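In the design runs reported in the main text, the only information available to the sequence generator was the tokenized backbone. The following block is the verbatim input for one such run; it is reproduced so that readers can re-run the procedure and compare outputs position by position.
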């Protein structure tokens, strides 16, 4: 299940040709970072889903997956026509790093992994909040405005789990 969903996300993001990659604007660099954050978050979501047996955690993860699915169409619209500096090696690297972080996942220390996930969510919240403050690019600002509330709700949901 993890591979098809991830391939969908990768296939929808890798849309730049080599000549476009040479001149990546600041907006495109920020969009690339958003894609990387989302890729890392999606991978972490899928790894926790595979490894956890906790029904409350799995419920929160289901909500996180819904967040990625529901915000994907808007992000695709924002990145349409942009030259994002992404390639398969970068996605492979993100995947390998996520897998390394979660290879020792154990129910006994599930709180550690949930904390890693919460840190990721909080980093995304900070990033989107900064983009909202900057208001440099209308489409990026709008996407941040759209995505941010559910990220905050996800953060609160994971805090409520209170897994140590």
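Verbatim output:
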């Amino acid at each position: 299940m993890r591979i098809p969903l991830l391939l969908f996300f990768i296939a929808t993001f890798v849309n730049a040709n080599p000549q476009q990659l040479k001149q990546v604007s600041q907006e495109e660099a920020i969009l690339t970072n958003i894609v990387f954050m989302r890729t890392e978050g999606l991978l972490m979501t899928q790894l926790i889903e595979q490894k956890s047996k906790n029904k409350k955690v799995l419920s929160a993860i289901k909500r996180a997956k819904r967040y990625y699915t529901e915000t994907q169409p808007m992000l695709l619209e924002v990145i349409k026509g942009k030259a994002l500096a992404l390639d398969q090696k970068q996605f492979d690297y993100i995947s390998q790093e996520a897998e390394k972080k979660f290879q020792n996942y154990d129910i006994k220390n599930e709180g550690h992994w949930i904390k890693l996930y919460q840190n990721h969510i909080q980093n995304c919240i900070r990033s989107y909040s900064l983009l909202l403050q900057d208001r440099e690019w209308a489409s990026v600002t709008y996407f941040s405005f759209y995505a941010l509330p559910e990220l905050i709700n996800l953060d609160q949901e994971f805090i409520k789990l209170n897994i140590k």
